[in-house]
# Entry
Amino acid sequence: MLKKTALHAAHIEAGGKLVDFGGWEMPLHYGSQLEEHHVVRQAAGVFDVSHMTVVDIEGEAGEPRRYLRHLLANDIDKAKTPGQAVYTCMLNEAGGVVDDLIAYWRGGDHYRLVVNAATRDKDLAWMASQAEGFNIALTERPQLAMLAVQGPEARSHAEAILPESLRAPAQALKPFHAAEAGDWFVARTGYTGEDGWEVILPEAEVAAAWAAALGAGIRPCGLGARDTLRLEAGLNLYGSDMDESTPPDTSNLGWTLALGEDRDFVGRAAVEAVRGQGIARKLTGLLLESRGVLRDHQEVVSASGEPLGEITSGGYGPTLERSIALARIASDAGDTVHVKVRNKLLTARVVPPPFVRRGTIKVEI
Amino acid sequence: MNNIPGDLKYTDEHEWLRLEDDGSVVVGITAHAQEALGDLVFVELPEVGQEIDAGDGIAVVESVKAASDVYAPINCTVSAINDALADTPESINEDPYGEGWIARITPGDRGDLNALMSADAYQEFLENLDD
# Structure
């Protein structure tokens, strides 16, 4: 039996094509994935991301902070003001990525983590197992829904869905900051490369918020467009572009490792050892020079046919009108590689992601 | 619900065939197939003159989601291809039985065409898929 979000009926009403998405019955698109992609780049779209897992952390004075500085590879102390967020991985002892997540400091001893839906069970088990010796409480919040409103017009159109008291604070948010009122929580974050908010709100109020968003001219967008948007934005997908066998340095996430001298964290020794040996493989972008579509797991080889690695996320970039991919390949692969597509070798250019950010193409086509 | 023209033949791989007066056969994919695939973004076409055995790939249609093979329904030789699909693969979504045609073929043995489904049979085939 697939799990359903509180918007299940609304998705059917909006013409959503529902599919199994990691155990959740979620909309892939509402007619055209391409149109939904373009609407987010050019105007505003809304995604139901209520399947994502929200975990609140509280505890004795100083304990939640101490716990998160142990659990997370990035440093929660980078959140300097209440509401500020930190993008981070949590690692296993071998330095592999258990999950990537956004951690918010909500002021005082209150923190919130938003982790992936597909990894919920193992994440909760991992967080609990790492909590030994810390006086904290981990509380999952499954009764909270989550909407992502994304696109250049998202914030202006979506203001109307927020409670009155949150509107001005939400509009004043800098990127990667959040504001809250009651059980409503608005963050200027997203997974599309566009401006917008992710709104966490009570499940009982999400149907009205969804209807208000549609009424304000925001278009419903499915998880298909979310994937092409995040791929163009060069944002990793957990389980495809990284997993428990890939340290952040080989996942284009070396920048999230906070290796200051004043703390240890799970996996630190392992990621430092990886870095000390030199990074043999990198996660980078590929832009297909010819027609065709790059796909997950296609093999990447050098001009002379030597194996370099493989594509971790491949697809069509609707904004670029070209196929793009993230690929884990040898660090010294050079600027041009070949990809095995069926019985052919297609030429691709190695380009550092993002491909598109804030509506603008960032790579030379 | 589904758009299934009565004058075409169909396969259980969701291809349609139009038998022309000159003995050639035009091949494409059905409305049901394009809808299941989603927005198409690339079509890999065969070469004109290529001989293809029944069941081997005659084209590859790639949507935003995935690549899918289109199989030759009968032993045949490719006599023409729809080059326009290189620039407008979305024709298959918009007009699967018209502008979205994929290839024109010459059957190796016209008798093979007798095994194909009529529109009614294909309709019934689709209904059984939904069960």
About this structure: Chain A has nine helices and 21 strands. The longest strand of chain A covers residues 307-317. The two ends of chain A are 45 Å apart (CA to CA).
